Every structure is written in structure tokens, then in C-alpha cells.
């Protein structure tokens, strides 16, 4: 595999380990609209794998207390529980049957993805399992980026070729290659180029830390190659949001990570960007144009014009909203490229607070793990996870992220990784304290 052979051969993989690796890889590299037969959204391989992991988590949770000292898992559960309460309230406040059904469908899919993340969090309390999962995560991201690069160069999205496999079909229309500033704008296995770029931007510091933590020559070669491909995938997505998320995730990872590495990260990132622009000079012109004359940019103007509509709609049901996942753009309702706006409408003030709590707790857990880390490798990785999650929270201001399964699942997986690092670091500190405690003195009579 992509990690050192010793790590993968050291311990026999349990069935749940295989499910986790397949799920993490599929989240990034497999189109979410490709389903088994005609089963609809619930028949997507990603959803089916998540369902099996969720069932496994439920069985383990029933048999023993697995939620003790798991703040990130509890926060994720709290958000989904609040979303379910919002859907329940919509039965009494929403007259549209279609809106209620959309709420139920969205809640089911998000709950299944949550179950997978909870099971992943249970399985990563040892370093070997964590490292193998990071191996799969970085390779999955690199595969998604490679598909996007091919699409950028050729205009052909090879991810859609899964439909020729017997038993697989498309649940809805698959996205075609679009154009931006006379360049192909790839979406790869994602539903949209913004989703692809944002997810790769969130993963970028994790991939970089994984490359820095490599030991064997072949291992480092594969990891650095994955970093190069992932970085290129961010750029070719031609997304402002992706570039902002990438820079922010790297900045947060640098601030929380080893201090002496800030200069290396800055220089390495700059050199990578220069080499990419030299390879494709038109990319530099296109990206420059995306950040100039923003006042006349239609996408920016559309976002700012949504304020009045959102304010008027939220004031109708300010606390619980109209129902999680129920907002449907159409006649009289604009497309909201801002998840916080949608959450205000769908789940009210309580929903927005729950979303912010989810990201805040996950970032704090990873930041604490970075602070408590006893090795540079552990500090670097925990800081990178915190950077990816924090940047994901900012990304929600640029697009309706929870409408996209790849983004939502990636957030949950990163949150599970954050909790894993926090628990390992906290356990290490507790062991050190126990070891360092002096034995009780004996009083002589």
C-alpha cells in the first residue's frame, strides 16, 4: 500500500478497518451520484458503506459506554439531534409536502454520514490505525485531484465512466465540464468545482504534514507526489473559495504547528504556485481576474443581494427555522451560495449555533492535541487537522456546503480525526502524570 509495508502488515485488518478505508477513499474519489441499480440517493456506495459503519457504531455503543470523554462525537450528535428537531417542527409549520420530504431525505443522509464518522472516531485510538487512515485519506484526495487535472486538460470527466459498470447508474444528471475564463473548470468526482476545490483545500495541510512525517524514501516520494497533485487540483478548480480555504487552512496549521516550520511552508507553497503557473501560464491570468473587479462579479453581487431575502425569511421562524434541508431554490427563492444563510432559514438561530459549536469543538480538540503533542510529527498532524476544519467553517460562507455529500462527509471525517488526536494526547499526558507522581511517604511510628 502507500504507507510503509511494515505498518500495513504489522496487524491484521479487521472487517471494520476495511470498511473505514473503503469509505474514506470513496468519499473523495467516487461520485456521490453514482448509485447501485435504481436505488436513488440512499443506494450510493458511499452511503451504503456509511450505513454499515453506523450500524457497527450503534452495536458497539449499546454494548459499552463509548461516548465518555468524546466531546467532538457528542457535539456532532447534538447538531444532528437539533436538526431532527427542526425537521419535526416543520411538520407543523410547513405546508409543502415536497419540502418536508426533502428535509427527511437530507436528515437521513446526514445521519448516516454521522454514523460513519462516529465509528471512525472509535477505531482511531491507536497510532497505527490513525496513520493507515491518513494514508487512505491523502491518496483518495490525490486521486480526486488527478481526475480533475485530467478533466482540466481534456474536458473529459473520467469519474462519470462508472456508469458503464453493470449494476451502477447515475442518480440524476451528471455534471458536465464547464468553462470559466476560457478554461475548462473541472469538478472531478464532486458535484461542483467549488466542492472539489474546497475539499482539497481543507485536506492540503493534512497531506503536507503527512508528507513531512514520512520516513522511508519510497514512502516520502509517494506522499510528496500526492501533495503536488492535490495542490494542482486546488488551482485547476478555478474557485476563489478553494484558494481562500487553502491559504487559510495552511495559515492555521502553521500558527498551531511547530514554529520553525512557518518559513519552510511559505517558501514551499510559493515555489509550488510559481511552478504550476509556469506550466500553465493562462492559469495565472484566470486566477488574477477572479480577484480583481469584484464589484462587477455576478457571483459576488448575487451573494450580497441575498441579504434582504434571508432576513425577511428568518424573521418568520427565527429560532427553529422551517426545517433542516427544506430550502429549495426556485420561484421566489434565490440560490443561496452561503450555508449559514441556508441554516438560518432551515434551522434558525439554534441551528447556526449548533453548526458553529461543531466546528469550534473539533478545532479546539485538534489544537489541544497539537499543544500537548510530545513529538514534532504529532504536533504537525494535529495542527493540520485543526487548520482543515477551521477553513471548512469559513468555506460555508462561500457555498451551501451541507448540500454536498463529499464536503459534509469530509468535515465529519476530519472531526473524527481531531477527536482521535485529542484522546491520544490526553491519555499520554495522564500516563505521564501517573508515572511522575511520587510514591506516598511512609510515616515511621
Could you say how many structural domains there are in total?
1
Using only C-alpha atoms, the radius of gyration works out to 22 Å
Strand content: under 5%
Strand order of the largest sheet: 1-2
Main sheet summary? 2 strands, antiparallel
Supply the number of helical segments: 16
| Number of beta-strand segments | 4
Could you characterize what this model shows?
By secondary structure, this protein is mostly helical. It has one domain (10-426). The chain has helices at 5-10, 15-29, 45-63, 71-93, 97-123, 127-154, 193-212, 217-236, 240-256, 262-279, 281-290, 298-304, 307-314, 339-372, 376-395, 405-436; strands at residues 34-36, 168-170, 178-180, 183-185. The protein is globular. The chain starts with a helix and ends in a 9-residue tail after the last helix.
How would the blueprint of this fold be written?
Elements: H1 5-10, H2 15-29, E1 34-36, H3 45-63, H4 71-93, H5 97-123, H6 127-154, E2 168-170, E3 178-180, E4 183-185, H7 193-212, H8 217-236, H9 240-256, H10 262-279, H11 281-290, H12 298-304, H13 307-314, H14 339-372, H15 376-395, H16 405-436
Antiparallel strand pairs: 1-2, 3-4
Outline of this structure?
This protein is 68% helix and 3% strand.
Keywords:
445 residues; mainly alpha; two-stranded antiparallel sheet; two-stranded antiparallel ribbon; 4 strands; 3% strand; globular
Amino acid at each position: 500500500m502507500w504507507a510503509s509495508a511494515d505498518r500495513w502488515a504489522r496487524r491484521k485488518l479487521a472487517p471494520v478497518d476495511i470498511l473505514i478505508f473503503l469509505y474514506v477513499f470513496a468519499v473523495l474519489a467516487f461520485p456521490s451520484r453514482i448509485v447501485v441499480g435504481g436505488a436513488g440517493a440512499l443506494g450510493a456506495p458511499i452511503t451504503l458503506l456509511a450505513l454499515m459503519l453506523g450500524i457497527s457504531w450503534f452495536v458497539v455503543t449499546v454494548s459499552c459506554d463509548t461516548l465518555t470523554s468524546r466531546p467532538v462525537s457528542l457535539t456532532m450528535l447534538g447538531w444532528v439531534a437539533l436538526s431532527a428537531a427542526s425537521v419535526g417542527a416543520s411538520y407543523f409549520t410547513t405546508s409543502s409536502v415536497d419540502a418536508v420530504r426533502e428535509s427527511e431525505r437530507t436528515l437521513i443522509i446526514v445521519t448516516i454520514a454521522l454514523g460513519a464518522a462516529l465509528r471512525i472516531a472509535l477505531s482511531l485510538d491507536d497510532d497505527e490505525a490513525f496513520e493507515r487512515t491518513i494514508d487512505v485519506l491523502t491518496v483518495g484526495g490525490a486521486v480526486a485531484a488527478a481526475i480533475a487535472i485530467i478533466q482540466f486538460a481534456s474536458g473529459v470527466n473520467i469519474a462519470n465512466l462508472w456508469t458503464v459498470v453493470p449494476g451502477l447508474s447515475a442518480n440524476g444528471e451528471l455534471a458536465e465540464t464547464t468553462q470559466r475564463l476560457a478554461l475548462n473548470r473541472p469538478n472531478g468526482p464532486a458535484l461542483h468545482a467549488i466542492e472539489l476545490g474546497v475539499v482539497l483545500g481543507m485536506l492540503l495541510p493534512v497531506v503536507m504534514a503527512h508528507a513531512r512525517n514520512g520516513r522511508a524514501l519510497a514512502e516520502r516520494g509517494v506522499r510528496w507526489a500526492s501533495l503536488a497533485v492535490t495542490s494542482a487540483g486546488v488551482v485547476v478548480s478555478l474557485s476563489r473559495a478553494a484558494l481562500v480555504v487553502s491559504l487559510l487552512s495552511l495559515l492555521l496549521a502553521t500558527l498551531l504547528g511547530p514554529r520553525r516550520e512557518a518559513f519552510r511552508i511559505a517558501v514551499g507553497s510559493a515555489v509550488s504556485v510559481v511552478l504550476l503557473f509556469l506550466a500553465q501560464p493562462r492559469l495565472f491570468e484566470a486566477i488574477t481576474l477572479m480577484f480583481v473587479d469584484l464589484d462587477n462579479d455576478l457571483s459576488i453581487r448575487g451573494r450580497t443581494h441575498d441579504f434582504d431575502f434571508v432576513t425577511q425569511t428568518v424573521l418568520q421562524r427565527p429560532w427553529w427555522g422551517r426545517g433542516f434541508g427544506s430550502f429549495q431554490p426556485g420561484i421566489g427563492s434565490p440560490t443561496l451560495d452561503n450555508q449559514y444563510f441556508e441554516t438560518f432559514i432551515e434551522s434558525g438561530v439554534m441551528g447556526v449555533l449548533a453548526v458553529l459549536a461543531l466546528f469550534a469543538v473539533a478545532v479546539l480538540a485538534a489544537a489541544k492535541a497539537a499543544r500537548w503533542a510530545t513529538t514534532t510529527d504529532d504536533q504537525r498532524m494535529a495542527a493540520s487537522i485543526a487548520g482543515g476544519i477551521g477553513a471548512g467553517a469559513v468555506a460555508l460562507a462561500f457555498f451551501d456546503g451541507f448540500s454536498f455529500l463529499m464536503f459534509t462527509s469530509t468535515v465529519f471525517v476530519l472531526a473524527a480525526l481531531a477527536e482521535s488526536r485529542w484522546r491520544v494526547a490526553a491519555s499520554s499526558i495522564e500516563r505521564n502524570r501517573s508515572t511522575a507522581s511520587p510514591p506516598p511517604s511512609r510515616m515511621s511510628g
